[in-house]
Amino acid sequence: MEAAIGKRELSGDKAQRIVDAMRASVAARGIAGSTFEHVAREAGVSRGLLHYYFGTKERLLVEVVRSDTEIRVARLDAPLAAARSVDDVLDVLVSNLMDSIENDPGVFVLLFEVFSAGRRNPEIEREVADLFRRTRAHVADVLRAKERDGAVSLRYGADATVSYLVAIADGLALQVLSDRERAYDDVISAGRAAAAALLRAD
């Protein structure tokens, strides 16, 4: 995906300030209230710069999701590399998911919002699909490495397994964020058992 979800590149400190400002604005005001004016002021840049590089608020949202997704995936790399068994792999995946839900729920709010925007905008839909495709491919490569190490045995292959694990994670996040009063230990246990079945061929 091209930087800034468009034809022009924006990198370095300004880009990071804009992404961080958009994320903070959504947390404080919601998607609807997060205007380019608010974001530009908080990032310390001109509103014209945001329009030039991002064009629309939806494209900026995609960039924020891209940045957050890269960070989340990068956090998995080292712990998964150290995993020596199916249980180790599941410990990493579950703890990472629950940490995101508890400490950075805005990640999922943005994810769902950009998905909705993509249903109305084919260009954004293509960009989001490409982002998710590359993310799944990265995690699938990690699982293939774990299989070569003998830590897991992928019953249905890496690509199908990752797609299913992502579906479980996103679905659980949506449920938890929608109903904070419910206890989800049983759901997590069920999801972990289902994931374990995909990671063991016996």
Comma- or semicolon-separated keywords:
202 residues, mainly alpha, Arc Repressor Mutant, subunit A, Tetracycline Repressor, domain 2, 9 helices, 79% helix, 0% strand, elongated
Structure write-up:
- With 202 residues, the protein is mainly alpha-helical.
- The chain has two domains: 1-55, Homeodomain-like (Arc Repressor Mutant, subunit A, Orthogonal Bundle); 62-199, Tetracycline Repressor, domain 2, CATH 1.10.357.10.
- Helices cover 79% and strands 0% of the residues.
- The chain has nine helices and no strands.
- It has helices at 13-33, 36-43, 47-54, 57-82, 86-103, 106-120, 122-149, 158-178, 185-199.
- α4 crosses α6 and α5 (86-103) packs parallel to α8.
- The longest helix has 28 residues, at 122-149.
- The protein starts with 12 loop residues before the first helix and ends with a helix.
